[in-house]
């Protein structure tokens, strides 16, 4: 009964509440009718775009760009003088587009960007100088995480450390989670990529380098770099990483096209003059490959087989059947295995080194991105630590270890006392030092076809010199041997199979094979790119003749050959090919005058800075030559960064996230040089609604992406 009375009492008051609500609404209407609203001048201090007119409030930005503004009352006049209406319009996407267009027009009209205020200045006014500084601190911290290839989870820890050290970051309690760091990453990478895109947009020619691999998540990916001129010198830039749907030629080409289109330009094919890759058939096959697709309709595009790969293949082909080298490799592998998998063995080695008053390094593995530098490094360690290693393996051979370990110690100690093998070891140390320097030079960033042949010729001459007489390492070994009772001693160790008669003929034959294989790989007459790369040598000022008459006709035929090959491309970029020869004569006169006066010649790259307008046609051809890719080794360095970032613990990172992380790691400036202002601007203006840096979530609230939340609400 009591419950029925309470319900009746509740429903009886419904009409009273509705009546009171209606009275309040009517009262508000009367108040608004009597109240005279007007424009408040202080609003312009926060919103400089608003202006009061006879027709009401208007937005100067939207009025200037009506096509972008769409249907908004702030174009013709908004008579609803409320601060809420102004704030709503300021946060709208169409208003931001009009504002960006307005400032872009001002930037184009005025080269001094400091004479106007952009959206970032409005953000500063809203945030306040203090908050703006704190947001920059967060972006600097996020950039440190990306640049140092650290996991996102360390972001909040680093912020907590700064707060503990007295930072004011405690004032902003939002955007301090690991998810915030992940959301900052796209804006940081976009800020890094913007100047790269601008340089690519202004260049006339570019080349690409690409390579494929399988990451730790067992996904096939293709990495892409591009090369262009930056202040007259070739510069390689990371483009992107794309996951392959198929590993055949169509799949690889589609991945390259997607990366270049998404991150560079949809018109990248119009500027393409060359492509570099390894020798895989899917990349450089004659009939059905990526190279045939890149050259489809563009016969001038040069598809270059990476010279570093070709050098490795030539050396391996030359030495793979040499029994002494096979023995040396087997010995080096056993030495590495012995110390890599046994801390006790490494500890014993260091104790022996300490007793002998010598320093010892842990032997290295033969495996690596490049075989030649790694085996050369392993040999150098063996030669340097010879005494300590021999003493330890002799001890191992007489120990009570397992038969496998004792057998390994006996094998290595016997080989280290073999005079013939030591002789070959020191010879290979001299030989591989030359080849390793050549390989490392081919792997340098920015190596051009102009440098290629000179470096190769220098290496060949060094090999021929080594053929005439023993190198420094081998000669030092021979000189250090002492003879007692017709027995050879090296570092107080008696050598087996010692002979006082040194026969260099066998070792000379090894050099002949190496020179022949290198020349066959790097100077293959059937290589379609060889003639163009050789013709490009005319732009190497070191090879110019001293005689004035010879200089006058130097390079004329090669210039015509290059002009004919790139005829279609030169015409497309507006080059007057009839002016190439006259300008070439002027270039030789400008630079060659110093040659006749016995002055060191500058590189031809200096013309891009000193005389860009006077020689504009010949510089177009020189730009093409300089951006041709000789090596794709930079792709291997990209995969090394990929391996460091995408580890087994972070195998779920998406391709988009990996692109952000790789770009920051590879192309990002140092922490000292990094400026977060542009990234903060992109973040502030990139949201679908206004950012809330001062929003403090409750202790039980879960931080949610603002853009995802807005999309969810719009779809409800």
Question: What brief labels describe this structure?
Answer:
716 residues, disordered C terminus, 60% helix, globular, 5 domains, 3-stranded antiparallel sheet, 10 strands, 36 helices, alpha+beta, disordered N terminus, 5-stranded mixed sheet
Number of distinct beta strands: 10
Taking all Cα atoms into account, the compactness measure Rg is: 35 Å
The shape, in one word, is: globular
Major sheet summary line: 5 strands, mixed
The number of helical runs is 36
> Based on helices, strands and strand pairing, what is the structural class?
alpha+beta
Q: Which regions have little confidence, pLDDT < 50, spanning 5+ residues? A: 1-5, 111-116, 700-704, 712-716
Give me the side-by-side strand order of the main sheet: 5-4-3-6-7
Helicity level: 55-70%
- What number of domains? 5
β-strand percent reads 5-15%
Kindly report how far apart the N and C termini lie: 43 Å
Average pLDDT score: 83
Structure description:
By secondary structure, the chain is an alpha+beta fold. It has five domains: 2-34; 43-113, no CATH class; 128-301 and 646-716, no CATH class; 312-522, no CATH class; 530-627, no CATH class. The chain is built from 36 helices and ten strands. The protein has a five-stranded mixed β-sheet with strand order 5-4-3-6-7. The protein has a three-stranded antiparallel β-sheet with strand order 8-9-10. Strand 4 (220-230) and strand 5 form a beta hairpin. The chain starts with a helix and ends with a helix. Mean pLDDT is 83; it is low at 1-5, 111-116, 700-704 and 712-716.
């Amino acid at each position: 009964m009591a419950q029925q009375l309470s319900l009746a009492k509740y429903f009886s008051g419904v009409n009273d509440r509705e009546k009171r609500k209606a009275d309040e609404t009517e009262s508000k209407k009367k108040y608004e009718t009597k109240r005279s609203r007007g424009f408040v001048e202080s609003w312009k201090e926060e919103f400089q775009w608003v202006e009061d007119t006879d027709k009401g409030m208007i937005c100067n930005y939207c009025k200037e760009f009506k096509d972008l503004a769409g249907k908004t009352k702030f174009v013709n006049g908004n008579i609803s003088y409320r601060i809420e209406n102004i704030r709503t319009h300021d946060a709208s996407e169409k208003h931001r587009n009009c504002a960006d267009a307005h400032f872009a027009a001002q930037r184009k009209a005025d080269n001094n960007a400091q004479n106007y205020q952009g959206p970032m200045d409005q953000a500063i006014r809203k945030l306040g100088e203090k908050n703006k500084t704190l947001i920059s601190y967060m972006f600097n911290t996020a950039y440190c995480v990306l640049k140092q290839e650290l996991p996102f989870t360390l972001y909040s820890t680093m912020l907590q450390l700064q707060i503990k050290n007295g930072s004011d970051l405690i004032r902003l309690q939002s955007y301090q989670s690991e998810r915030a760091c992940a959301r900052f990453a796209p804006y940081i990478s976009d800020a890094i990529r913007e100047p790269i895109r601008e340089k690519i947009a202004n260049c006339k020619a570019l080349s690409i380098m690409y390579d494929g691999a399988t990451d730790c998540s067992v996904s096939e990916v293709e990495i892409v770099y591009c090369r262009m001129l930056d202040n007259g010198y070739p510069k390689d830039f990371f483009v992107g990483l794309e996951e392959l749907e198929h590993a055949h030629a169509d799949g690889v080409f589609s991945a390259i096209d997607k990366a270049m289109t998404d991150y560079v330009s949809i018109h990248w094919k119009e500027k393409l003059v060359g492509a570099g890759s390894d020798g895989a058939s899917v990349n450089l096959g004659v009939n059905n490959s990526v190279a045939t697709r890149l050259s489809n309709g563009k016969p001038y595009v040069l598809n270059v087989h990476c010279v570093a790969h070709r050098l490795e293949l030539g050396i391996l082909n030359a030495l793979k059947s040499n029994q002494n080298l096979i023995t040396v490799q087997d010995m080096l592998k056993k030495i590495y295995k012995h110390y890599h998998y046994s801390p006790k063995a490494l500890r014993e080695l260091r104790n022996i080194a300490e007793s002998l008053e010598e320093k010892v390094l842990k032997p290295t593995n033969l495996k690596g991105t490049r075989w030649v530098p790694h085996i050369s490094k392993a040999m150098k360690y063996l030669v340097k630590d010879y005494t300590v290693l021999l003493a330890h393996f002799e001890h191992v051979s007489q120990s009570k270890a397992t038969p496998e370990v004792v057998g390994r110690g006996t094998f290595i100690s016997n080989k280290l006392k073999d005079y013939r093998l030591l002789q070959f070891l020191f010879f290979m140390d001299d030989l591989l030092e030359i080849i390793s320097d050549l390989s490392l030079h081919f792997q340098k960033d920015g190596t051009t076809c102009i440098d290629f042949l000179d470096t190769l010729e220098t290496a060949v001459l060094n090999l021929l010199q080594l053929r005439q007489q023993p190198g420094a390492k081998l000669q030092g070994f021979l000189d250090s041997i002492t003879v007692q009772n017709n027995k050879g001693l090296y570092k107080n160790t008696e050598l087996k199979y010692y002979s006082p008669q040194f026969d260099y003929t066998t070792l000379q034959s090894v050099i002949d094979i190496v020179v022949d294989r290198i020349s066959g790989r790097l100077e293959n007459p059937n290589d379609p790119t060889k003639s163009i790369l050789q013709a490009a040598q005319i732009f190497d000022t070191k090879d110019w003749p001293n005689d004035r008459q010879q200089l006058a006709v130097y390079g004329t035929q090669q210039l015509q050959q290059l002009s004919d090959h790139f005829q279609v491309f030169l015409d497309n970029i507006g080059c007057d090919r009839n002016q190439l020869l006259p300008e070439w004569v002027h270039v030789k006169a400008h630079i060659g005058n110093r040659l006749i006066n016995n002055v060191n010649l500058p590189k031809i790259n200096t013309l891009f800075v000193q005389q860009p307008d006077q020689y504009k046609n010949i510089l177009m051809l020189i730009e093409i030559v300089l951006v041709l890719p000789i090596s794709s080794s930079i792709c291997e360095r990209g995969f090394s960064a990929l391996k460091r970032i995408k580890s087994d613990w972070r195998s779920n990172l998406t391709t988009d996230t990996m692109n952000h992380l790789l770009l920051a790691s590879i192309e990002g400036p140092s922490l000292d040089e990094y400026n977060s202002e542009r990234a903060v601007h992109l973040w502030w203006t990139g949201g679908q609604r206004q950012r809330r840096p001062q929003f403090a979530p409750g202790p039980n609230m879960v931080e949610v992406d603002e853009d995802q939340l807005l999309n969810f609400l719009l779809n409800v």
